[in-house]
Amino acid sequence: MKIYVKHYRKAAVGILEFGDPSGNSLRQNSLKELQKQLLALEANEKVRVIVLQSAGSKAFCGGASFIEMKELKDIEQATLFFMGFANVINTLRSLSKFVIARIQGKVVGGGVGLVSACDFAIATKCASIKLSELSIGLGPYVIEPAVSRKIGATAFSQLSLDTENWKDPEWSLSRGLFADVVKNEDELNKKVNEVAERISAYSPQAVKSLKKLHWKNTDHWETLLPKNAEITARLVLEKTTQKILKTL
Predict the structure, then answer these.
(1) Model confidence at 161, in pLDDT bands (50, 70, 90)?
(2) Mean pLDDT in the chain?
(3) List of residues 6+ apart from 67 with CB closer than 8 A
(4) Tens digits of per-residue pLDDT, 12-48?
(5) Is the pTM of this model over 0.70?
(6) What percentage of the chain carries pLDDT values higher than 70?
(7) Residue 19, beta-bridge partner list
């Protein structure tokens, strides 16, 4: 598999897809492209709803790229790297169109943040999730506001502390991260298409107003997420974290 981010349109549905051979983890350039292409879909008046999906069948998103994380040398470089997730999350919440996450497989770390920043998430029985940041000397600081908003502070605390065990899709469904869980990818495609077509038929102005209502009281994320990115950047440069990263 090659590294890519692409978008295209099917009728009124905009599809944004990413892929990476390292478990669909996200590198800095991929995060930049995700933000750029989200804005392109936002600007396209023919697009009424957006579907976020990834390549393959095994993993939806492996979070931040360990390959690039190992290469971070100073605070400026590290902050810029983690700002990639901050920028994508802030872009997702500020769009005027609803975003549906199509989750075919496991979700780790920053990927959980992306799912949380989407408006509607549909997953298969294979879509277990995990926040493993603490185990490598970090913490899910950048994604915390999005994840806590979606599943609540208590569930976030449980998830961020239990770095070794996967939470099954039913756990995510019961806590509001997933809106629906289906048996397989065929059912996933059918359900995603049904929801996307239904939402695309709604009034754009009504959708815009409702999206704004859903994301009320999050404007401060424009300053909060960059601060959290810097906290993560400082932690990734710690000797203990660097030592752990070298073993991965």
Answers:
(1) very high
(2) 98
(3) 22, 25, 27
(4) 999 999 999 999 999 999 999 999 999 999 999 999 9
(5) yes
(6) 100
(7) 4
Phi, psi for residue 89 in degrees, rounded to 5: -65, -45
Q: 48 vs 14, 120, 161, 210, CA distance in Å?
A: 7, 14, 38, 14
Question: Is 4-200 a CATH 3.90.226.10 domain?
Answer: yes
Strand-by-strand arrangement of the 99-103 sheet: 4-10, 13-19, 49-54, 99-103, 120-124, 180-182
Positions of E strands within the chain: 4-10, 13-19, 49-54, 59-61, 99-103, 106-108, 120-124, 129-130, 180-182
Cβ-contact 57, 63 below 8 angstroms: no
Half-sphere exposure of 99 (CA within 13 A, CB side): 28
* Residue type for position 197: E
Distances (CA, A) of 77 to 25, 71, 184: 19, 9, 40
Is residue 53's pLDDT more than 90?
yes
Domain chopping of the chain, boundaries: 4-200
Contacts for 26 with CB less than 8 Å, ≥ 6 apart? 18, 20, 34, 61, 62, 63, 64, 65, 84, 85, 110, 111
